[in-house]
Structures are given as structure tokens and as C-alpha cells.
Amino acid sequence: MLKKLVKYSWISVLCLFLWACTSGGNISKVEKSISPSTLYHEEEIDNAMDVVVQHFKSNFKGCTLTELDYDEAFSVAQADEWAKQYSANQAIVLISSFDVDETGGDGSLNPNQTYDNWQWILTREQDGKWILRTWGY
Description:
Layout: H1 2-22, E1 31-34, H2 42-59, E2 63-70, H3 72-85, E3 90-100, E4 114-124, E5 131-136
Parallel strand pairs: 1-2
Antiparallel strand pairs: 2-3, 3-4, 4-5
């Protein structure tokens, strides 16, 4: 009886592992790049990136995140407008690249395509936690 229980426990663990690996976006290959910043400490930018990575992992099934970048000049050019739109103190814009598999993700993306310059807009109050507001082109 114990042998059967152990056997089924291992099968359950294996099924759970396989489900976890295929249930969301693949973040195992993401390379983060942070340009020098006069506005934020590297840790603050990395925290914003972590929010994006977790959202991608949870919501971009069939996609592989390959790059996530912070370019201060690009972000600053848009940040004030985004902050105003969301009535926030600060905004940051991150840029990513990701690959879509043959399924087209959730069906809204083109199968077997790479999406470059995909933007992620996050806001926060002074020194607060970043909140992901929107994403896309």
C-alpha cells in the first residue's frame, strides 16, 4: 500500500511540475539590461523588471521572454505622460523582446513571431511598489 502511495505521489509531483512549466510564459532565457540612471537606483529598476517578469510568466502562455531593457532616455521621454494618465507620482517604461511559439500564445499574437520593442508601463508613488498598468506597442 505504501509503495502505491509513493508511486502516485511521484506521479502527482511530476504532473504538477509539467503543468507549472507549461502553464505560463517562459522566463528562463530573459536577459535584463539596465542603462545608467540618474533617476533610479538599479534595485528600483530591477524591482520594476521583476513585476513585468512575473506578469509575463503568469499571462503569456506559449511565449518566451528573451530581453527586458531599461533605457533612461526612452523612458523619460514618455514617463510624465504615463504618470499623469494614471495619477501617479512616477512612471517607468521598460522595453522587451519575446518569441511566440506555434500556438500564438493565447491566440492574440502571431504564431512563430518575435515581438521587439514591446513596452511595459509601470507607475508608483514615491518609493512605493511598482504597479504594471499597460503593455504593448
